[in-house]
Write a structure and sequence with these properties.
It is built from eight helices and four strands; from the N terminus they run E-H-E-H-E-H-H-E-H-H-H-H. By secondary structure, the chain is an alpha/beta fold. It is elongated and about 85 Å long. It has a four-stranded parallel β-sheet with strand order 2-1-3-4, sandwiched between helices.
Length: about 200
């Protein structure tokens, strides 16, 4: 049985910073060589650092994370992974932002402690998943509301320049190639092709 302490850090994108998580881990006293970090979405657990961490964990170890959503955001997958960590591997879990979720404490009775820990883990996993779904819903509703106000998303549609008809006729007559026609109009070849074959120009 080991008594090693490991830390896990995750940020969703390269643009996000994980400084706060590193500081929290080091403050907890975890050696840097036992801190595993991923820069990947939390939608699933296909992450290199996480898989390396799981192979390192052994009975009696402790895993520390800053918040539950750093572990993941999918409720079902979270429950599965937490079961592997806490029950199968018998590794204690510490969530720094949720002092209640510290499975090092068994509340006197080991069986009761495990039951309470499992209930708390399932509860907060559900909360993490629900929050993710709410954020997606809020984003969708915000986009829908903006569209209703007339806000347009995506790239602005290109407008055919006045000289398009003349250039198209030259292309149609075989005087210039499609690529040359596109260059003359200052657009890409696929754009000219789309314009040239539009119904109103057949």
């Amino acid at each position: 049985m080991n008594n090693n302490i490991y830390g896990y850090i995750r940020v969703s994108t390269v643009a996000q910073h994980d400084d706060r998580q590193w500081v929290a881990m080091e403050k907890f006293g975890i050696p840097r060589e036992r801190i595993f970090a991923d820069r990947q979405s939390g939608k699933d657990f296909n992450r290199p650092a996480y898989h390396k961490l799981i192979t390192q964990l052994d009975q009696g170890d402790t895993l520390v994370i800053k918040s539950l959503d750093r572990l993941g955001r999918n409720y079902d997958e979270m429950i599965k992974q937490l079961d592997i960590i806490t029950r199968q591997k018998e590794v204690a879990l510490v969530v720094l932002d949720l002092p209640l979720l510290d499975t090092r404490n068994r509340y006197g009775n080991d069986l009761t402690g495990k039951l309470i820990s499992n209930l708390v883990i399932q509860l907060f996993s559900y909360v993490a998943q629900t929050e993710r779904e709410m954020n997606i819903k809020r984003t969708s509703e915000g986009i829908a509301a903006a569209k209703a106000r007339g806000v347009r998303f995506g790239r602005k549609a290109l407008v055919r320049p006045p000289e398009f008809d003349d250039v198209r006729q030259q292309w149609k007559d075989g005087v210039i190639s499609e690529r040359e026609a596109a260059k003359m109009l200052g657009v890409s070849r696929p754009t000219f092709h789309k314009w040239a074959y539009a119904r109103n120009h057949k």
